[in-house]
Amino acid sequence: MAQQHKQEPEIPYLTRTQVLVAMGVTAILLWIVAKLWLQFGNFALMPWRWDKTELLWGVLLGLGITALSTIIYRLWVPYRKSADFYLEMVLKPLALPDLIWLGLLPGLSEELLFRGVMLPAFGYSYGAVIISSLCFGVLHLSGSQQWPYVIWASIVGMLLGFSALVSGNLLVPIVAHILTNLISSYSWKIGQSQIVKN
């Protein structure tokens, strides 16, 4: 009889408190790295300003990334398995109100470092977008079998990076990142609660 192989985490499943603490610690560490890099680097943080048009671009980009993720999730089986594993590990222990933190903390801290600091540090170029996007993808690696999720995170990083490069406003990727995280996490959580009810 053939044994079914369910993808098991290389790190154990976390509790709600552990996930929240991990998010907070990661956000603080990314902020510290960004601040130190700015302190010792010879460049300025990418500017960010409140602008209604660019805020709207951030919202549209976030919706676009979410829609693209949904399509890829349905069509690319390795990504679906990888995303399900990652989302179950991170989202399953969290309560619905916790998802606000999942939107805000990574959306702010990751954009500060990967777009706000790395793009100007590497010279506001396509190369800078690619380097920062690959680093962003690797940040989402939670195990050797998670390469499809890393590839998708790198692609998202490129979309966010190009939006920052074109707009010159860090607000655009911040809004897109927060919105993508919020929609994706709430959709997954609600979908899981409906599966449990059935």
Automatic annotation (TrEMBL):
GO molecular function per UniProt: endopeptidase activity; metallopeptidase activity
GO biological process, one term: proteolysis
Membrane-crossing segments per the record: 20-40, 55-77, 121-142, 149-179
Superkingdom field: Bacteria
Pfam families assigned: Rce1-like (PF02517)
Start and end residues of each CAAX prenyl protease 2/Lysostaphin resistance protein A-like domain: 95-183
UniProtKB keywords: Hydrolase, Membrane, Metalloprotease, Protease, Transmembrane, Transmembrane helix
Full protein name: CPBP family intramembrane metalloprotease
